[in-house]
Write a structure and sequence with these properties.
The structure is a homodimer.
Chain A lengths: L12 E10 L7 H12 L5 E9 L2 E8 L2 H8 L2 H14 E17 L10
Antiparallel strand pairs in A: 1-3, 1-4, 2-3
Chain lengths: ~120, ~120
């Protein structure tokens, strides 16, 4: 199991927020494919970490990248493109992808920089 | 129940990624407080939407804001500050907050702009 929350370097870096709704909660190969994609993502240049959670059919995955170029490169990895196609054919009723630049990060109890309330 | 994925305007806008680990899975007032915070956030100037998912103790919430100023203002709302304190005292073992600017968004089946694969 990956660290949660994941540890990321000093901003700026890129975050890709993937918001998905499954077609149903049956697995149909989804869990194995998702685990494989996590493993494959972690091998890419510029990968910083990933965090996922799912409530029933509704899922959020945030992957962190050194820069937008490495996030874009991951999107184009052949095995990942195949999984994206399978996702649209079978697993997902809908999804959205938001590509963002992280400017500021803090945490509790320990954190990157002082907690704004402390 | 809020829309999931939530609908957001043309980028740029601000995303706040809140990654949390609960102390345990017992409720202890958490669900009611979380629902109240969702309701209160939605009343703030600049609020665009919110998405949450939780797998056991691990949770992700992404809130979307018109700009970083409105995200910062929400952080300082008195009732929200009280909930943040309660969160550190009771509900959360750890959390991280990442403030980001969304530059690009797309979705499937419908989406903001063409899907990069289509």
């Amino acid at each position: 199991m990956a660290a949660f929350p994941t540890t990321t370097p000093e901003p700026p870096y890129t975050a890709v927020v993937f918001t998905s709704v499954r077609t149903d909660e049956d697995d149909e190969g989804y869990a194995a494919a998702a685990a494989r994609m996590d493993e494959l993502a972690a091998q890419q240049d510029g990968y910083l970490g990933i965090e996922s959670a799912r409530s029933g059919r509704e899922g959020l995955t945030v992957s962190y990248w050194r820069d937008e170029g490495s996030a874009r490169a991951w999107k184009q990895v052949v095995e990942h493109l195949a999984a994206q196609g399978e996702g649209r054919r079978r697993w997902y009723a809908a999804y959205r992808v938001r590509v963002a630049t992280v400017h500021r990060e803090y945490g509790w109890p320990a954190g990157r920089g002082p907690h704004p309330d402390l």
